[in-house]
Amino acid sequence: MSNAAFEAQRTALADVVAIPVTPFAEDGGVDRDTYRALLRRLLHGGITTLTPNGNTGEFYALTPAERRLVTELTVEEVGGEATVLVGVGHDVPTAVASARHAREVGAQMVMVHQPVHPYVSAAGWVDYHRAIAEAVPELGVVPYVRNAQLPGERLAELADACPNVIGVKYAVPDAARFAAFARDAGLDRFVWVAGLAEPYAPSYFSAGATGFTSGLVNVAPTVSRSMLRALRAGDYPAAMTVWERIRRFEELRAAHGSANNVTVVKEALACLGLCRRDVRPPSKPLPEEERAEVVAIAEEWSI
Question: 0.90 exceeded by the pTM?
Answer without folding.
Answer: yes
